[in-house]
């Protein structure tokens, strides 16, 4: 049996077992009495199937289309959910608890989504030196997303450089730093003044604080944010523009990013943001979205990000 068919069967069997454990029987899933193999034929070569190849049985099609039609994910972006800080935290707790994800997994997807959105919005020119990107990483997971994004940006044809003023002791952050160093991404020991940044960097990534930020900014980060406020180089903020109140948004002295890449779902403070806005974090299971009553945009095809504005 080919790998594709055995994979499909494993998927349908696993789905059936899960559904059965939540009260649905195989009979309910395949009411026509079709066996798990009916309607599926192992291809004999890598050639595309001929017109004579039987289609999956209607019962299989109904299982497939139900899962891609979940009401939490919609093509209409006008009524998507904006999260409170508490909701964002509770979703994290679920992801790392009952849903069995690890922080490394989700941070990798988050950082990759950020790099992908940057490559869409600010594509690197094909015949020029790689654009220099300044990544400002903070002490929490938002900062970790920045370190991951730096690595992917390097692969995508940029020249990232990291300012990481407060590294915490957790091994994941030491590992992310090491990976960047091994990729010859430089770390800066200080944040240059705005004019130096403007003259030397095409883009700045703000990965200082995300939904874990509690105002006001503590003294150790005041100068950093003041400098960032003066950047003319466009800023791309990860999840939440740093220093903004997660729920009420900017105040008079806040940074003004050109673009924000929200993760999971935008936070309430983003409701009046009019810059470029992408959503990433394509890892929310349907059941979790339903549990939190989330309205999320549907990601097209294999995309890791979807543009909201
Ligand atoms: N579920 C997801 O979508 C995922 C999101 N990710 C990213 O993780 C951050 C949230 O991470 P967390 O570690 O909880 O918080 P932050 O990084 O936002 O900040 C915590 C960090 O900041 C310090 N801090 C808090 N307030 C202040 C302040 N007023 N002044 C100075 N410092 C402050 C605090 O002490 C901590 O050290 C989310 O936004 C996403 O970007 C995951 O990567 C993947 C899953
Ligand atoms: K941020």
UniProtKB/TrEMBL annotation:
Q: What does this protein do?
A: Catalyzes the epimerization of the S- and R-forms of NAD(P)HX, a damaged form of NAD(P)H that is a result of enzymatic or heat-dependent hydration. This is a prerequisite for the S-specific NAD(P)H-hydrate dehydratase to allow the repair of both epimers of NAD(P)HX.
What protein name applies here?
A: NAD(P)H-hydrate epimerase
| GO CC annotation | mitochondrion
Protein's UniProt keywords contain Transmembrane: no
Q: What class of enzyme is it?
A: isomerase
Into which family does the record put it? Belongs to the NnrE/AIBP family.
Statement: the UniProt record of this protein carries the keyword Isomerase = yes
The UniProt regions of compositional bias labelled Low complexity, in chain numbering, are: 43-65
Q: How many and how are cofactors bound here? A: Binds 1 potassium ion per subunit.
Name the residues that bind (6S)-NADPHX.
141-145, 210-216, 239
Record's catalysed reaction(s): (6R)-NADHX = (6S)-NADHX; (6R)-NADPHX = (6S)-NADPHX
Q: Which cofactor does it need?
A: K(+)
Instruction: Spell out the residue ranges making up region: Disordered.
Output: 38-65
Pfam families for this protein: YjeF_N
Q: Which residues bind K(+)?
A: 142, 206, 242
Molecular functions (GO terms): metal ion binding; NAD(P)HX epimerase activity; nucleotide binding
Organism of this sequence: Galendromus occidentalis
